[in-house]
């Protein structure tokens, strides 16, 4: 038989969660997910939401020959900041400018495929 949780403990649990957090599994908040159309939409930046398209940004980084670690160092942002952007979190204006300038500083690699 399960015992009901006291009201004061239940309300303390609810107050400890960030506003708008979606709870999954064992009460852990989940990061906001990218919209389903981001896979097909290749735009890098959405000014309305303040978020990068994680799929397009990762492709832009890789096709220029960078790893995420190297790109973060080149852009002058922390790896944690870049990984948050790649998890579809909103980015600050400073981060957007640094990411855009760093991407523009190197041409994409043209990979040849054997046919």
Could you please describe the fold and organization of this structure?
There is one protein chain. About 5% of the residues have low confidence. The chain starts with 6 loop residues before the first helix and ends in an 11-residue tail after the last helix. The protein contains five helices and four strands; from the N terminus they run αββββαααα. By secondary structure, it is mainly alpha-helical. The strands form two sheets. It has a two-stranded antiparallel sheet with strand order 1-2. It has a two-stranded antiparallel ribbon with strand order 3-4. α3 packs across α4. The protein has a domain of 69 residues: 434 Repressor (Amino-terminal Domain), CATH 1.10.260.
Q: What characteristic shape results from the CA principal axes?
A: globular
Gap between N and C termini, in Å?
A: 67 Å
For the record, the CATH architecture of the domain at 36-104 stands as Orthogonal Bundle
Number of strands: 4
Number of helices: 5
Oligomeric state of shown chains: single chain
SS strand fraction: 5-15%
Give the low-pLDDT segments: 19-24
Structural class: mainly alpha
- The largest beta-sheet arranges its strands as 1-2
Instruction: Report the CATH topology name of the domain at 36-104.
Output: 434 Repressor (Amino-terminal Domain)
């Amino acid at each position: 038989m399960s015992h009901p949780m006291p009201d004061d403990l239940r309300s303390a649990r609810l107050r400890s969660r960030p506003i708008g957090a979606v709870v999954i599994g064992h009460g852990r908040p989940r990061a906001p997910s990218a919209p389903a159309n981001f896979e097909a939409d290749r735009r890098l930046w959405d000014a309305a939401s303040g978020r990068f398209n994680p799929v397009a940004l990762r492709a832009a980084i890789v096709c220029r020959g960078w790893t995420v670690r190297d790109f973060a160092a080149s852009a002058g942002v922390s790896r944690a900041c870049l990984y948050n952007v790649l998890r579809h979190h909103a980015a600050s204006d400073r981060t957007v400018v640094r990411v855009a300038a760093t991407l523009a500083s190197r041409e994409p690699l043209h990979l040849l495929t054997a046919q």
